Amino acid sequence: MDIPTLESLNLLAVLPAIILAAYTGLLLVVDLFIPNENKQRTALLAILGLGATGVALGVQINQYSAIGDQMAFGGLVIVDGYALFLQGIFLLSAILGILMAMNYLPRRGIERGEYYSLILFTTVGSMFMALANDLMVVFVALELLSIPLYVLSAFIRDDPGSEEAGMKYFLLGAFSSAFFVYGVALIYGGTGTTSLDGVAAVLAGEALNLPLALVGMGLLLVGLGFKVAAFPFHMWTPDVYQGAPTAATGFMSVGAKVAGFAALIRVLVTAFPGAAQAWGLLVIAIAILTMILGNVTAISQSNAKRMLAYSSIAHAGYILVALSAAQFPELAQEASSAALFYMLTYTITNLGAFAVVMAIEKDDGSGVEIEDFAGLAKSRPAVALMMLIFMLSLTGLPVSAGMVGKFFVFGVAINAASQSVWLAIVAIVGVLTSVVSAFYYMRIVYMMYMRDGDEEAEYPAIKPALGTALAVTGIGTLVLGFLPTLLFDAAQRALIAGL
Amino acid sequence: MLQETTFLAPTSWYVILSATLFIMGMAGVLIRRNAILIFMSVELMLNSANLAFVAFARSFMDITGQVFVFFVITVAAAEVAVGLALIVAIFRTKQSIDIDELNTMEG
Questions:
Q1: Which helix (H) or strand (E) segment is B32 a member of?
Q2: How many whole angstroms separate alpha carbon A463 and alpha carbon A153?
Q3: What is the mean pLDDT of the segment spanning A279-290?
Q4: Cβ–Cβ < 8 Å for B49, A182
Q5: What is the domain partition of chain B in residue ranges?
Q6: Element (H, E) at B80
Q7: What does the buried/exposed string (b/e) look like for A389-418 if buried means 16 or more CB atoms within 10 Å of the residue's CB?
């Protein structure tokens, strides 16, 4: 084994993640000296740290075209366009998540400084998920991402719903991690390495024990399937999303899911091109079932948070459509860019939808039934308009980010249809289930615009932080809808040397 | 160095043992209703993976698998900290850690 040198560590390449990790540890200590009634300062400090990380990341992205891909920690970590793009998404969702929490936590009486540190820890974990080039790093990052989220979902300590959410998320999360670890153990047994490139190289040649590696890959799929809430590993999602504090739900519905996909796509495309047919079929089957289950079950929900939980399951299905096209090496790059772009649109839109839910939620946590949206267009026209944009985008109707995202995702599946008829089927199911999804998204729009609400209904005041989050997500959704090529090019450039 | 005369169980024996432990842990998670016992079953699954790692590492004469085990142990310890805290918090509100009683939400 090589003795690591400073050059092979190449710490500069992972500077953004290191800055954020160090800053988070520091923030945890600083928070002790901030008095309880001033915890908004912790939040501002957290945003400051994310901003500093963002600057470091921006410098890196700027230099990327000159330097190209870099390895760090002796090849355990890879800094390529894919990782840079995803880290940007994670920072954005963390900033929005904190802005929403700044407004929400004091109202629920649960503003404790650790909340913000935990969000930052999760973000560090997500960043390393995107950077990972070795199953060992994926595992540690996955846990760094998940463990703070268990705490966040149980953050309303004396509320049975929140505790229940935390417990369920924890038990199923730990269960899925066990699958993941055992999968890695079998892959190690089958190939003799845990490095993604190493696994690919061994599988391309003479594998030590191919069946062992393939079973390991299946277990990895189970473990990550739990994280991204894909069928049949989705059953924790509705309860956890409903019980957790809405600010945490919004954050984890994008952060954890995107990070899970970051690892899933990287592992399958980089380490298992040799077994692409096997995982391709599995992913297609999971994608079809996930889209059907998510969309059909969402129809019968009466709670908005629960409805958005099923909708997030459905969206995991759409991202899997893109991943299923990545089984063909010549389409892998296009498929990954489509998935990246979809994740960006999903992040912005879904965070926005949860911000609206937070804007109408009462101080005791009630008021998030779909009925409670009635008459919102009259009492709160601006918020209702925002929700309209988000619902259009989640459905995938024109001039919204979601439509462009779906266009790319289904487009790449159609492109691949000439190679396998299953890709055509998965694209058709995707389009049909999107039509079904219009039913439950538009029901909220119907409630807001067509139904008269309770005249005395009082909505909590929208503070600047939540207002900013709403404005950013709303404008972002529209901009991505109008200027899609701009960002899709960025997503594609992100992958040129990447995958 | 291992001597020629030392009896070495073939790697496959360890792998079979670890697979058995993994399946026992999985069954435990699915069958048990007590949160602590479910949690112990998860630990059993993690440790079965550790056994597999060490067995493979020995057969390859490679250090990676053994290093991985240390990471798994550390992460498992972090999970215990959070998990037991959650279980204690739930016990305080509900006086029970039976997961079938965690059913305030439905749909």
A1: none
A2: 23
A3: 94
A4: yes
A5: 12-101
A6: helix B64-94
A7: bbbbbbbbbeebbbbbbbbbbbebbbbbbe
Query: Binning pLDDT at 50, 70 and 90, where does residue A497 land?
Result: very low
Number of helical (H) and strand (E) elements in chain B, helices listed first: 3, 0
CB pair distance less than 8 Å for B64 and A238: no
How many CA atoms are closer than 13 Å to the CA of A82, on its beta-carbon side? 32
Pull the structure tokens for residue A118: 């935990």
Residues of A at the B interface, defined by Cβ within 8 angstroms: 1, 136, 139-140, 143, 147, 150-151, 154, 157-158, 160-161, 163-164, 166-168, 170-171, 174-175, 177-179, 181-182, 184-186, 188-189, 192-194, 238-239, 242-243, 300-303, 306
ipTM computed for the complex: 0.93
The dihedral region occupied by A70, where left means phi > 0, alpha psi between -120 and 50, and beta the remainder, is: beta
Cα–Cα distance measured from residue A365 to residue A237, given in angstroms and rounded to the nearest whole number: 19
Residue B9 is inside which H or E element, if any? Answer: none
The C-alpha atoms of residue A24 and residue A15 are separated, in whole angstroms, by: 14
- Token pair 């030590």 in the structure block, residue: A208
Q: Which residue of A has its CA nearest to B51?
A: A185
**Alpha-carbon span B10 to B16, nearest angstrom:** 10
CB-count exposure of residue A218 (10 Å: 0-12, 13-18, 19+): middle
Average pLDDT over residues A390-403: 88
Number of Cβ within a 10 Å radius of residue A234: 24
Domain boundaries, chain A: 6-493
| CA–CA dist A453, A379 (Å, integer) | 9
- Tokens found for residue A236: 């924790």
Residue scoring higher pLDDT (A22 or A231): A22
The third-level CATH classification (topology) of the domain covering B12-101 is: Helix Hairpins (1.10.287)
